[in-house]
Amino acid sequence: MGGWRREPGRVSASLALTRSAAAGCAVAEQAPLRAAEAAPLHESEVAPLREGEIPPLREREVAPLRESDVTPLRERGQREVFCGLTGIVWLHRAMPDAFFLVVGSRTCAHLLQSAAGVMIFAEPRFATAIIEERDLAGRADMNDELDRVVTRLLERRPEIRLLFLVGSCPSEVIKLDLGRAAARLAQRTLPATRVLAYSGSGLETTFTQGEDACLAALVPELACSDSPALLVAGALPDVIEAQFRATFAALGIGQVHFLPPRRATALPPVGPHTRLLLAQPFLAETARLLEARGARRIAAAFPFGEEGTTAWFSAAAAAFGVQPDRRDAVLAPGQARARAAVGRQRERLAGRSVFLFPDSQLEIPFARFLSRELGMRLVEVGTPYLHRQHLAEELALLPAGTRLSEGQDVDRQLDRCRAARPDLVVCGLGLANPLEAEGITTKWSIELLFSPVHGYEQAGDLAGLFARPMLRRALLDGALAPAAPVAA
Amino acid sequence: MGGWRREPGRVSASLALTRSAAAGCAVAEQAPLRAAEAAPLHESEVAPLREGEIPPLREREVAPLRESDVTPLRERGQREVFCGLTGIVWLHRAMPDAFFLVVGSRTCAHLLQSAAGVMIFAEPRFATAIIEERDLAGRADMNDELDRVVTRLLERRPEIRLLFLVGSCPSEVIKLDLGRAAARLAQRTLPATRVLAYSGSGLETTFTQGEDACLAALVPELACSDSPALLVAGALPDVIEAQFRATFAALGIGQVHFLPPRRATALPPVGPHTRLLLAQPFLAETARLLEARGARRIAAAFPFGEEGTTAWFSAAAAAFGVQPDRRDAVLAPGQARARAAVGRQRERLAGRSVFLFPDSQLEIPFARFLSRELGMRLVEVGTPYLHRQHLAEELALLPAGTRLSEGQDVDRQLDRCRAARPDLVVCGLGLANPLEAEGITTKWSIELLFSPVHGYEQAGDLAGLFARPMLRRALLDGALAPAAPVAA
Amino acid sequence: MQLTLWTYEGPTHVGAMRVAAAMDGVHYVLHAPQGDTYADLLFTMIERADRRPPVTYTTFAARDLGGDTAALFKTAVRDAYERFRPEVMLVGASCTGELIQDDPGGLARALGLPIPVIALDLPSYQRKENWAAAETFYALVRGLAVEAPRDEHGPSCNILGPTALGFRHRDDVREVRGLLERLGVRVNVVAPLGATPAALARLGEARFNVVLYPEIAGTAARYLQKRFGQPSTRTVPIGVAATRAFVDEVLALAGIAPDAAEPACNLPWYSRSVDATYLTGKRVLVFGDATHAIAAARVAASELGFDVVGLGSYSREFGRELREAALGYGLEALISDDSLEVEQRIAELRPDLVLGTQMERHVAKRLGIPCAVISAPVHVQDFPARYSPQMGFEGANVLFDSWVHPLMMGLEEHLLGMFREDDEFSPDAPASHLGAEAHSRSLEVAGVDAAAWAPEAERELRRVPVFVRGRARRNTEAYARDRGRALITVETLYEAKAHHAR
Amino acid sequence: MQLTLWTYEGPTHVGAMRVAAAMDGVHYVLHAPQGDTYADLLFTMIERADRRPPVTYTTFAARDLGGDTAALFKTAVRDAYERFRPEVMLVGASCTGELIQDDPGGLARALGLPIPVIALDLPSYQRKENWAAAETFYALVRGLAVEAPRDEHGPSCNILGPTALGFRHRDDVREVRGLLERLGVRVNVVAPLGATPAALARLGEARFNVVLYPEIAGTAARYLQKRFGQPSTRTVPIGVAATRAFVDEVLALAGIAPDAAEPACNLPWYSRSVDATYLTGKRVLVFGDATHAIAAARVAASELGFDVVGLGSYSREFGRELREAALGYGLEALISDDSLEVEQRIAELRPDLVLGTQMERHVAKRLGIPCAVISAPVHVQDFPARYSPQMGFEGANVLFDSWVHPLMMGLEEHLLGMFREDDEFSPDAPASHLGAEAHSRSLEVAGVDAAAWAPEAERELRRVPVFVRGRARRNTEAYARDRGRALITVETLYEAKAHHAR
Q1: More confident residue, A23 or A362
Q2: What is the pLDDT of residue D452?
Q3: Geometric angle at alpha carbon B459, from B455 and B464, rounded to 5°
Q4: Does the beta-carbon distance from C264 to A486 stay under 8 Å?
Q5: Which residues of B touch D261 (CB under 8 A)?
Q6: Shortest CB distance from B460 goes to which of D264, D265, D498?
Q7: Which of A112, A169, A360 to mutate against chain D (most D CBs within 10 Å)?
Q8: Distance, in angstroms, between B433 CA and closest chain D CA?
Q9: Number of B:D CB contacts under 8 A?
Q10: pLDDT at A5 over 60
């Protein structure tokens, strides 16, 4: 089995190749070539900041981070992060007619039912095809087995329009070619059901990169279009998408598409007149493939908090030639509401220190929000991976001297955290309660992904998510001495 | 306050008088006169058995009770029984557009919410107007107070079509004339809402006699009719009424009415060609008033178990001239089903002894069923009151030497019960658990009233109600030593 | 006259029965008509008592009213004495018995029984169950307690207040007794629950009294203070903080120093655990007897991080304490024994959680609001087989579980809904753990007096998760109403949201 | 390959973690890719652990696979030893780590750490969590236990089996320990929960072993029997009868006579109380791990008077025991780890009550069937703040309450419905404590293959109380099907009723 060691990037490349045939569009044809050359996601080179598309910003109270400051602490050690499979927990909700079939181990299945922090055992739109000893020992042909499992699944769930075969650590290590399997299965299931593949393996993807890989797998499927349009990329809750659509409409931006769409049968088109606006900071590969299809990215801070939302809409407005007057008129009420709602939390949070563990790649936009709109002091901002190009506008807004860290050695990071004793730690569920038991207030980070937090109307909610643990500690400290195990 | 002692029977008489005016029908006019003369329910004289209307019965294995045996043990002492208010718990369900307003004390309200063995606090169709100190001390005029309460109630529940003012022990003792109050209130509330009064006081009524008093209060309201019709008296669950209607229809008995009707606005008529069939053994006063209105009672055993149901339908069939062939053809399938269902329980119960405490006046029909269809040995059959005339057909079916008791001295009855150590005791909820703790198996009697137990299709259910506690004890005795308080 | 659908408290003689039935060696002869014996089933069915309450009823009937009910009563007393041979006889009348004015006390005393006879004068048309229980216990204590040497076997106390049919009294006594013994305080007498008349005679031997239920033991404790100079505890140990304060109070009264580790308790850690963050600021309405309501509000606010938006009680006797406690939350206490009024308040406030009696549980169920029961009147559900105190450290654990579970079920429904529907399935399905009527009712109540919703605003509202949609609707409507807006637009919805952000 | 929506058991390394996390002084280095660290949150969130599990993951990534993953592993072991200074080191691989075949045991031993290093070989593609927990515990016991003098301080035993993330293990240990001490049996070591490696070394000092969870402690107990001649208890003390049998077994093994009164337990009386009569013959389906499922079926049948209509488990290792137990109820055991198959069985059998895992709870909720949870896999709800054992006398009380409450809620709905609707309101409203889908689903399932209902029969059916209407419909349809009737009339309905009368 030693021969199962794999070349990095190999599987995603083969997937992209397979898919391009289906898309059949000139620009798309070139995407797989670049995909095949791509270095693993963790190692993309640092691109120089592009200044041109940053929207004009009002004066802020903190000196901005200079580019020379952006030398993150890079660590190698135990990474206390989810793998990309976890994204299925929200992706299956964003695409209700899609189904995610992980090809992996019992561990993958167990992760999926544990990761969301809930086990509710409704019949979900995801499942795991668990590889067994007889598959590995060659007593069963794995492709036959996969065909059998998919057949049973589609019989049971005929309403599925899009089936993702999702690669895992074991499937990658044994070099099971899910791209080829998807193509083979699609011959039987089309036109009723499209079959695509992507990898959510922890070997290649960290947490939100699973969404990136999933959306990237959709790109070759997109039709070509020469019409000018705005394409917003990133899975968003329905309510956010509706708000964004309303604001774009008010700005007079006509054609607006979202990726992923609510229905797998209604994929947006892409082409040279497509302007790409990222709603999430973790879509490196998706953006790359869309750009390869001709889309041009609108660089902007991300729509978290009033400032980020204003910057994001302003960048789109500028790209679509919206007059500043109109832009200001459209955005003003939302700005005012967001400022009012956030302002109330600011009273609780201003001046307090915060430490963000690496988790979702949302850390840098959130740190910018916490620092600039809530007045918090940033002790350390960890991120599993720093995409300098997509985050250029965010980095420029961080205060000078902010300590960034990329990658992780969790034990050493905990040492730093304990030493700093911040007022608030943003971290994953594996760390939160142990830190609480040490008397350190925490905000568990996965809720930030599961809750609607984008845009003006959710700016107050986002602030509230950070404020609530601190409020709670203050409430409880009045009556109860800090919890400590007591002898029986 | 010593002057508040009351003459027995006074209030019901005045009620009947008040009501007769509303009914306005020649025969009805005479009813109140007899009502005024009536001795209290407990003391009606023993009428000779009428043999004529007993339907032909198949040979049974037990020698019947001879009339000379019917010398019940009469006891005076603590009576462990409910008062007539309790009937509201099922009456309000039988007449969904009626409302029962008890005029009484906190005790009455507490009884009502405790008696059913459940407190579910849905907004019920009954309530209590609680008499307070200021009412008694004369600081408030009780009639004004009652008017105020009824006004508030009808504002809140405009869907009420029939309001019963229900007298209680305190209202009787202070001689609050609810009959007059009902007439006064009706002037304001008619035609939307009829107002009647009856007494459910424990001074005058025992448990099921509350239903008797309630139905008796309806009798003067019935329209006159000269058409031949069958009137079935006694509140029955919907499912039983439907079954009975179907059987009467199959027998070819045309006009069949039920008292109470499902809607207070659809009271059945009564007249000289009305044949009265009692579905319950406790309707002494109701039957008397209906007979005063011209109805002629069909004497029969009551429709519990296969035998009772057959006797009951047969008596009706005979009264309406149904041919025996047709009667047998109609009844045969139900008989067969009832016999099959009861037969299965007989295996468990035959030869076992049973002791019935006085409760609902259903004891004698049940004893007949237990003895003749289930083969149980009757140790003692208690009844709060023995109506020899209505129960003549039942008494004739009891085995010779059956010990009957009327009235109660609960402590002495418990002594007899403990001495006999019967296999099953049928008793009220106040006695059941204490007897269980002494190792005596009990069936709590109120469930027999709340469950559909009349007719062929329920004969098996009725047997099951008696069998289940014995089955349970057998099950538990296998694993658990009889419960006994153990020292901690 | 008072129109009453359901009552929080029973009549006075039931209060007396709760004391008599709790004790051994006491018999109660009650001058009462047939039917009043229903009260027996409260004990045998709700509490599953394995013996009949020690009560004899005269069960007089209409025919007796013309005759000699006094003779009937005397016979009943004599027979009861012969049959049950109690150490003490209580005599009294139920509401109807009171009206016929036969003077049970005088009649019973005239019989010259060789045991103490205590006459209870419990005015049925003025007072209620809890007051009567307190009065009965006080009458027994006054009649039976005698001077006695103090603290012969080390510092000791009495535990006063637990009765039959009490809300978790059985387990509270066990928990508090364990706590006291762990502190080195001997428990002299527990009363009335499990006490004999002889035990009541020994009450004076203790250094102080632990008053578990002021509604029941307050009167007797004040008497013991006056008669024997015994001080009483003032803290009811419900919740962790109150239990700690209670321990301090006990140590001070006993004059001893703490000598044992505090027992383990999960509430503080569970309440700090990050999965409890979502409890913060949940709006809670509290209603019950005074002791439990005041304590529950305190625990809710300071140990679970809830926001107390309503506090009330049916214990009119404790109006001052209730008003004081409510003020601490910026509230006016609702002091009422009218269950309709309480229902109305719940419907108006629409809290996230109701902590109430069985009645409020049913009201909350109809309105689709999670609820936990904290107080009598008791139901068979309130006598669980398992150890379920409300007091002490284990009591605090029980409170945590009992109060959080309904909210957790609500959250589960939310998540289930997320997984299940996603737009295409009925998004308005009510939470399945709540009443089937929940949804329609909540819309209906919310719709009263409300401004109209523009179609796109209604659509936007339907995007709000079902779990918080009701509140979003109410907040928006309140916002529109306060500003005199007739039409609710999407902007109004978000203005209201920003306005209500906390 | 096996299509899996939800799993009853986690992967093998999670079983090992449950043992490691239960103990003090043990550290586990796991060769595993990034992402496998999700397992930490099982402990910190579900069990609310106040410390991270003592596990170091190598978290290798794609780029490492081309390089030296063995070196990565050795570095991780060395760093973990330096940082955590455990008394024993466990090393192993997760499913992905197993595929790259780096030999964690060999690599770790090569480091020459000054502590015992125990290599775990837990084949991920063949075995599952519980087997692995047993294997891990056995490996620790075999590696650490040494010969020792027996019973130096009187008759003593070890309690074996409780782990982290166990279903009520925390409280079972407390309950059983209390029981043993009351009997005069000293508890030598409890393991793995709360044990140190040093404590494992002392296992041989006990006279016998109490095996609480055979799934986990069985292998180790057999080893201890062979090595030290220690016998083990065979009875798992769940339920009153089993607890009594367990006590007898313990007394025999300890060679002592009973010397204490049996602790109070409410189950026997509550189960005999007349309000429990309605429980008789309720049809119950049981599914869980083998120990809990077999015990629950026994308690359900013989202590609560239920009718066990289904018994199953995902513990394939205990197939023989399960089949034997099922035979006692005239059933064939359902041995499956396919939750869809279990769901199908529940849907077919339509029991009155399901005793299952959290998965069955959700299935039952969707089908409108009351359910109580009796077994892992655990959920945060399965770690209540309050004392909630399943074993011993208090455990029996907990079982009574937990199993009867869902049925009682069902009955309450029935009564609520009686009061609320009476025909004119929607008579088909589903019980509000159950899933909103309950009604439609139950009709739907019942309707498959069924004969047609004549309108008057359908009308008659609607007169049957909603609480039992579903069963009436199914019984009638089964009756009609068995007799090849195409149309169901009122007569058919009543024939079926008479036929099914019990």
Answers
A1: A362
A2: 87
A3: 150
A4: yes
A5: 486-488
A6: D498
A7: A169
A8: 6
A9: 120
A10: no
Is C111 within 8 Å of C78 (Cβ atoms)?
A: yes
Q: CB of C434 within 8 Å of any CB in chain D? A: yes
- Amino acid letter, A430: G
CA angle at C207 for the pair C17 and C226, rounded to the nearest 5°: 65
Backbone phi, psi, residue B108, to 5° = -60, -45
C255, with CB counted inside 10 A (0-12, 13-18, 19+), is: exposed
Instruction: Please report the DSSP string for D346-411 in residue order.
Output: HHHH--SEEEE-HHHHHHHHHHT--EEE-SSSP-GGGS-SS---SSHHHHHHHHHHHHHHHHHHHH
What is the C-alpha to C-alpha distance for residues B65 and D496, in angstroms, rounded to an integer? Answer: 36
Encode pLDDT of A427-485 as tens digits. Answer: 999 999 999 999 999 999 988 988 899 999 999 999 999 999 999 999 998 766 544 43
Residue A115: the pLDDT is 75
Cβ pair A459, A303 in contact under 8 A: no
Chain D environment of A202 (Cβ under 8 Å): 33-36, 59, 61, 96
Considering only CB atoms, which chain B residues are within 8 Å of C58? 78
pTM comes to: 0.90
D2-4 and A126-130 strand pairing = antiparallel
Beta bridge partners of D90: D28, D118
Contact B145 C5 (CB under 8 A): no
CA distances from C70 to B8, B201, C67, C76, C106 (A): 18, 20, 9, 10, 10
Nearest CA in chain A to D61: A203
Residue D329's Cα: distance from chain center in Å? 20
| Distance in Å, alpha carbon of C425 to nearest chain D alpha carbon | 12
Query: Quick one: tokens of C180?
Result: 């006291």
In this structure, what are the phi and psi dihedrals at residue D374, rounded to the nearest 5 degrees? -125, 0
D140 and D194 Cβ atoms separated by less than 8 Å: no
Assign A181 to helix, strand or coil: helix
Chain A residue whose CA is closest to D43: A430
Look at residues D168, D177, D164 and name the one whose alpha carbon lies nearest to residue D399.
Answer: D168
**Which residue is closest to C357 within chain B, CA to CA?**
B121
Note whether C302 contacts A479, CB cutoff 8 Å.
Answer: yes
Percent of chain A exceeding pLDDT 70 equals: 82
Asked if C333 and C325 touch (Cβ cutoff 8 Å), the reply is yes
Structure tokens at B2: 């010593």
| Site of tokens 């299935």 | D363
Structure tokens at C255: 């004059």
Helix (H/G/I), strand (E/B), else coil: B178: helix
Structure tokens at A459: 């700016």
Kindly identify which residue of chain A lies nearest to residue D366, measuring between CA atoms.
A122
Asked whether residue A383 carries a pLDDT value surpassing 90, the answer given is yes
CB contact under 8 A, C263 and A486: yes
The mean pLDDT value for D378-394 works out to: 95
- C96 and B170 in contact by Cβ < 8 A? yes
- How much is the ipTM here? 0.89
* Residues D45, A119: Cα–Cα separation, whole Å: 12
Would you say B413 and B386 are in contact if contact means Cβ atoms under 8 Å apart?
no
Tell me which of C1, C72, C103, C177 to substitute to probe the interface with B (most B C-beta atoms closer than 10 Å).
C1
Sheet bearing D307-313, strands edge to edge: D334-335, D307-313, D283-288, D353-356, D371-373
Q: Say if CB B397 and CB B301 are below 8 A apart.
A: yes
C-alpha distances in angstroms, C110 versus B78, C71, C97? 22, 12, 19
What type of residue sits at position D1?
M
Query: Would the CB atoms of A114 and D42 count as touching at under 8 Å?
Result: yes
**What pLDDT is stored for residue D466 in this prediction?**
67
Q: Do C48 and D269 touch (CB under 8 A)?
A: yes
